[in-house]
Amino acid sequence: MEHLQNFINECDRRTEQAKRRLAETQEELSAEVAAKLQRVHELAEQIGKHLAQAEKLGEEGNVEESMRIMEEVEEFKRQKSLAEQEYRNSMPASSYQQQKLRVCEVCSAYLGIHDNDRRLADHFGGKLHLGFIAIREKLKELKAEVNEKRQKGRLERDRDYLREREERSRSDSSRSRRHRSRSSSRHRHRSRSDERRKRSKHRHRSSSRERHRSRDRHSHRRERSRDRKEKKRSRSRERRRSHSTGNEKEENNHEG
Questions:
Q1: Beta partners for 110?
Q2: Per the count of CB atoms within 10 A, which of 6, 77, 116, 219 is most buried?
Q3: Where is this region: Disordered (predicted)?
Q4: Is the per-residue pLDDT at 125 higher than 70?
């Protein structure tokens, strides 16, 4: 396709160059006169195309269709003659002679406003002109196919993008649910852990209080035991002192 496009681009470039050269040598026409001239060229082109088609049909043996097209050619000739007369009357003779050429938009060949039917038929039915038509039509088909493939590719990419986005959305939703589940699980675990710690602290405090009370009771018992022992020792000392005093008195009595 790129080769065909380059070929057509070169042809169009030559067409524009030819138009510029004609514009340099021909007087500028008013819009009304230019439109009349264009009408003459269009009718001449129709005559040439229909003549070439009629000749081809005659060679193929389709005489009736060829005759029907020749009748259309005669009508085009009549319209062309009237168009030329209007165009000639709309401008001076000198200018009319200068405006006798134009450039074929298909193959960039020069065409004359006064070319006879035979020459027009040879041009529009010729290999060069028909070849350029075939190339342009083929290029148009290829461009349409490329655009269709691009459109399909774009649609497929859009579908893939939407599918990937949906998959990401589902994946994100799944991750979000798992995250919420883990968060809830961690929350429950923290709650249970906090509860266990609270119970442990409570048990620890209870145990500490119990140990403290036990120590208090044990200490109280030791103190009472020490008190009793101290009282016993005190009474024992009292008895010993009392006994010792009694003995001394008794000895003194004996001595007296």
A1: 103
A2: 77
A3: 163-256
A4: yes
Q: What is the pLDDT of residue 6?
A: 87
- For 195, counting Cβ atoms within 10 Å of its Cβ (0-12 exposed, 13-18 middle, 19+ buried), the class is exposed
Please provide the DSSP assignment of 52-76 as one string. Answer: HHHHHHHHTT-HHHHHHHHHHHHHH
Residues 6+ apart with CB under 8 A from 103: 15, 18, 19, 22, 109, 110, 111
Cβ 51 vs Cβ 120: under 8 Å: yes
Cβ–Cβ under 8 Å, residues 91 and 33? yes
3-state secondary structure of 123: helix
CA separation, residue 164 to residues 154, 158, 170, 176 (Å): 15, 10, 10, 18
Which ranges in 90-126 belong to alpha helices (H)? 93-98, 117-124
Question: Mean of the pLDDT values across residues 224-244?
Answer: 68
CA 24 to chain centre: 50
The fraction of the chain above a pLDDT of 90, given in percent, is 7
Give the per-residue pLDDT at 246: 55
CA gap 130, 143 in Å, rounded: 20
Q: How far apart are CA 221 and CA 114, in angstroms?
A: 147
pLDDT of the residue at 185: 61
For residue 103, list its beta bridge partners: 110
SS3 helix, strand, coil % of the chain, rounded to 5?
Answer: 85, 0, 10
